[in-house]
């Protein structure tokens, strides 16, 4: 898998490079690196709070939780049932499997396989991808998935039918897993169905990020992910 990712990544990179002006590429990549650096230092995006109800941030009461590694998308599909995203960063850049992949507009996938200089991610437009999200207005949470039809639309499940959901409401990342920070925009609700006898809504959402126009992204490194995973596995084993 690593060899395949490396060879495919090299091919996609060569094809991609022919469509760019060299100087513009250098400028964009430099800006991307700087954005990743400053985003990692940002107290809201890059840290978790030891006192979560405090609105003002202070270095003495925060520990760093997230790093953001800038990357360019060199291949991306949206028309298949299971879509993938290839980026021009790999293990040499600190990319690892199970890292979340985001843009400035929202969540786009999770890293699956990594070679030295490239990585392949499962897109949110993949049959095996589910994302824990919540309603921005009232924190009720559910799961986002994709039915394989329109690449711009996803489905939101497990929202109870007593919740006041409105067309135009925003769904954001829940932040309960080790993949993504909380409150990253995901989608806008465009349709709400309530079938008789069902206790959950059937909700349609439009992705905020247009995956046909996405060029740059960030791989999210959760520095304390292993601590959370090991603790949860310990509890599961005891049960």
Account of the 3D structure:
The chain has 239 residues and is an alpha+beta fold. The chain has two domains: 2-126 and 211-238, Thrombin, subunit H (Beta Barrel), CATH 2.40.10.340; 131-207, Thrombin, subunit H. The chain is built from three helices and 14 strands. It has helices spanning 2-17, 22-41, 225-238; strands at residues 47-49, 62-64, 66-76, 84-87, 100-102, 107-114, 119-123, 131-135, 141-145, 153-157, 170-173, 185-193, 202-207, 216-222. The strands form three sheets. A six-stranded antiparallel β-barrel has the order 3-4-7-6-5-14. Strands 8-9-10-13-12-11 form a six-stranded antiparallel barrel. A two-stranded antiparallel ribbon has the order 1-2. A hairpin with a 7-residue loop joins β3 (66-76) and β4. The longest helix has 20 residues, at 22-41. The two termini are 35 Å apart.
Give the key terms:
single chain; 239 residues; alpha+beta; Thrombin, subunit H; 2 domains; 6-stranded antiparallel barrel; 6-stranded antiparallel β-barrel; 21% helix; 33% strand
Task: Write a brief caption for the model.
The protein is of the alpha+beta class and 239 residues long.
Helices, strands, pairings?
Layout: H1 2-17, H2 22-41, E1 47-49, E2 62-64, E3 66-76, E4 84-87, E5 100-102, E6 107-114, E7 119-123, E8 131-135, E9 141-145, E10 153-157, E11 170-173, E12 185-193, E13 202-207, E14 216-222, H3 225-238
Antiparallel strand pairs: 1-2, 3-4, 3-14, 4-7, 5-6, 5-14, 6-7, 8-9, 8-11, 9-10, 10-13, 11-12, 12-13
